[in-house]
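User: Can you help me understand a structure? I only have the sequence.
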Amino acid sequence: MYILYNAKDRRLRIMSPKAIFGEYFKAKRIERGLTLREFCKRFGLDPGNISKLERGLLPPPTSREKLEAYASFLGLKKGTDDWLEFFDRAAACRGELPKDLLEDSEVVKNLPLIFRTIRGKKVTTKLLSELIEKIRRT
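Assistant: Let's start by predicting it. Here is the structure, written out as tokens:
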């Protein structure tokens, strides 16, 4: 299971690894008012593959270019919370940390502390919310 923080509504959600990216992809497509077939036809995509992606049967692409293309097809604007969440979910689904975080030496230096804190106690929604707020304030 994965625990994700949604910056928009400031809530934590527990999700299965398979659903973490595909569910978000599908929700954004539906927000645009497009059926799977309409979406794929408009952007020249294979409906079978996109359906598998949305259901978590295919992992998110590893190619930054492909992810950026999908994000733009979904109407996500570069640098917005939705854009970042899209890429964060793709990384989490692949068992990775987002690349922009790994490029920040201060963040990387503090990751072991965050991991130890989370492992040291039973992880509750309240604990994670408090941790997120502490990180945000630093």
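Now, to help you interpret it: The beta strands are 2-6, 11-15. The two ends are 27 Å apart (CA to CA). Let me know which part you'd like to focus on.
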